[in-house]
Amino acid sequence: MSSNDIEKLDTSSRKDGLRNPRAVLLLVLWYIFSGCTLIMNKYVLTYMGVHPILSAMGQVFMCFFGGIFIGQFSCGLFRGNQFKTIRSKNFYRSMLFLGSLRFLTLLTGSLSLSYVAASFTETIKSSAPMFTVFISRSLTGEYTSPLVIASLLPIMSGLALCSATELSFNSVGFVAAIITNISECCQNVFSKLLLNGERYRYTPLEIQIFSSLMSYLVQLPVAFLFLDSITWGQLSSFGALFGILLNGFFFQSQSVIEYALLEYISPVTHSVINTLKRALLIWLSVLFFGNEVTFLSGIGTSIVVLGVFGYNKAKQIVDIRQPSDIKPPSALLSV
User: Fold this and answer.
1) Helix (H, G, I), strand (E, B), or coil: what is residue 170?
2) How many C-alpha atoms does 177 have within 13 Å on its Cβ side?
3) Average pLDDT of the chain?
4) Residues 133-182: pLDDT tens digits?
5) First to last CA, the chain
6) Which pLDDT score, from 0 to 100, does residue 17 have?
7) For a pLDDT cut of 70, what percent of the chain falls above it?
8) Helix (H, G, I), strand (E, B) or coil at 71
9) What are the CB-based long-range contacts (under 8 Å, 24+) for 192-197?
């Protein structure tokens, strides 16, 4: 099949959107694996007592080998070649930087789940558009319209209300979640630059594999430096090791399925269903773990979710008025 034929198929599939049964199946699987990732991650960290560094190492370990497996066998998820034969001279340096950001994101995300309720962590992660706007402006000089900036106010106010009234609030967990957001947004902005370079463009699967490898190489010396023999001994327990690898499998599956879904839907549709996913994960964690939620905290969470919907609508309006050639950040590298 020629590249033109593949491009026509991609365009046709994206026009069908969620009317395509395959896209609906991928959407359902994405939601399921996202829920499994959140629940398993919280369970491994809080109830099994696994150290956040070991949990993060398990996730990138499965992303690396899972990415190689998907790249070789596809499993019906992708069309076309996912690996480039020509790479820029700065490719591995870029992957090292991206891998370091990925390690920081996974580590602080796991640390946050160790200290606060999963629903609170997800609420903070829902405010990611607020951080993305400021980081994009700082790193790439990307212009942000007053309408988009105004749409961020409900997100900030909802997050402040939720934080002030959260029963499980812990300063370490809160700071870790904020760092997770900042690191993930930097990761996504940098990924966008790599995916849409003028001379070299790489596939999301290719970036995932190499950034996971570099992330693991960064994690090893950190782990040997900060973990004692007792913590390393957790890997000798079959239950803990199985939980770490299963959590990594769920994380890898969530990421790959999300990328496959992006071949069928527009960026705007993805933003909307991603916001819905966040809302579902927040309330799923409340029901599953039995977290107590105050009335004001619930209101704050709802304001954040509705604020993200408003942000997506504002972006859509601005993009129609001022079309941009820059594609959105890769969702494959999200946590």
Assistant:
1) coil
2) 25
3) 78
4) 777 777 666 667 888 788 878 877 887 887 777 677 788 888 998 898 88
5) 34
6) 65
7) 79
8) helix
9) 192/326, 192/327, 192/328, 192/329, 192/330, 193/140, 194/94, 194/98, 195/327, 195/330, 196/326, 196/327, 197/88
What distance lies between CA 42 and its chain's CA centroid?
A: 16
Structure tokens at 181: 């957001």
Higher pLDDT residue, 324 or 135?
135
* Residues 6 or more apart in contact with residue 49 via CB below 8 angstroms: 234
- For residue 8, CA distances in Å to 4, 98, 196, 330 come to 6, 32, 20, 21
- Phi first, then psi: what are they for 83, rounded to 5°? -130, 130
Find the DSSP H helices in 196-237: 204-226, 229-232
Q: Tokens 């390690």 label which residue?
A: 103
Q: Report d(CA 158, CA 155) in Å as an integer.
A: 5
Tell me how far apart the alpha carbons of residues 313 and 224 are, in angstroms, rounded to a whole number: 46
